[in-house]
Amino acid sequence: MKIRRKDRKQMSGIGQGKRYGWILAFFLAASLAAGGTGATLLAEESGAGITDDGGTQDAHDELGNMIPEDLGELYAKSAVLMDADSGRVLIAKDGNTMRPMASTTKIMTCILALEEGNLEDVVTASGEAASQPKVHLGMREGEQFVLGDLLYSLMLESHNDSAVAIAEHIAGSVPEFAEKMNAKAKEIGCSDAHFVSPNGLDASDEGGTHSISAVDLAMIMSYCVAKSPKAEEFLKITQTASYSFNDTEGKRSFSCNNHNLFLSMMEGAISGKTGFTGDAGYCYVGALRKDGKTFAVALLACGWPNNKNYKWTDTKKLMAYGLEHYEYRDVWQEPEIADIPVENGIASDGSLSGQSVAKVRLDTEDTELQVLLGDQEEVKISVTEDNTLTAPVAEGELVGTVTYYLGERQLKGYPLVACSDVEEKTVKWYFSKVITYWLDFSACDFLLK
């Protein structure tokens, strides 16, 4: 191709102005960089959080009443069936109403003693402990016992004096132990629980009445049997049919028998605690594990004398419904994820005009997600990514989430992260590009001369 003289002169004119090139290049690079970095797009907010333990959203977000039509009537004024592994409320009747809980309180006393005490500790009975009403062990002031023995007295026979002696040993006093109980309840996730005593006798303090909701009682039982670091010890105690022990001096002997009849009523029953006071009525909290499923049932105000068997009828009905209508299903899906544009980022080909994007990946090694689902329940997946990123972007940077939902309830969330670094277009980078183009253009001018 021929180059006309006029064109050659124009190009030569550029060559004659090279002495100004470095100055022009600097200002051009600065101008480009300023335009590239001046605008920022806010990433779209994601409403989905990321959970690490199977995705337990607060059970209190659930409705207080979730009763299947085919379940039938329940005797209890408040009742809950819970998936003990996830903490999800499956069935609830007035589940969030606070009511007195009687001796079901003692599951909290027991788990605190297991987690904060030493089973070989020696416990000395105070006058306060020895004065507790029936049902009691009959301990005497100054008498000493091994803590581990008293936990069997607490859970099998529901002895009120043992509860007070344990509380005073762990915390120094009943009020201080109640503070620990309330703190533990909050740690577990309870919001409708107020503990005043370690034994559950009807009581009040400046904070209110000793009471709890069925949702929170089921949550505490779920913690005791499935999540506590002392779950194995808790189950061992509450599954024991009978237990005998002596005071530390060997002067008196005691025998305890388990009054949790549910243990022999259904295959898979693993734990439970009964309770009764005049204010609370008959109460029960229990757990069952079968076919890979673990359920907790909590019943409050489940009849008054002479209806002490109502609690067994309700418990069996709820447990049987859970076993029949809920199964684990693998709901894992490979999400559809897209690259994300990166503002002011260097394109992969390194050009000035190339589109800069961040490659995205799911940050997990999971290939399955087992969820306990009812007959008609379906899990949906939501992918939320930032609309735009602003350079620099670091490899592994969080750029979105993949969240699994059951209705409005979040089950599990996984992070989406950038696959690699995306560097920023800085003044230095623009300057180097301009200089490169300038030198290439100058070389062309030299060859044309």
Describe what you observe in this structure.
This protein starts with a helix and ends with a helix. Helix 6 packs across helix 7. It has two domains: 17-46 and 333-444, Peptidoglycan synthesis regulatory factor (PBP3), Domain 2, CATH 2.60.410; 73-326, DD-peptidase/beta-lactamase superfamily (Beta-lactamase). It has helices spanning 5-16, 21-37, 106-116, 127-130, 147-156, 160-171, 174-188, 214-227, 231-239, 310-325, 427-448, and strands at residues 78-83, 88-93, 122-124, 144-146, 193-194, 204-205, 208-209, 211-212, 242-246, 253-257, 269-277, 281-290, 293-300, 326-330, 340-343, 357-358, 360-362, 370-374, 380-385, 389-390, 398-406, 409-418. The strands form eight sheets. The chain has a five-stranded antiparallel β-sheet with strand order 2-1-13-12-11, with helices on both faces. A four-stranded antiparallel β-sheet has the order 17-22-21-19, with no helix packed on it. With 449 residues, the chain is an alpha+beta fold. It has eleven helices and 22 strands. The radius of gyration is 34 Å and the shape is elongated. The relative contact order is 0.15. The protein is 32% helix and 24% strand.
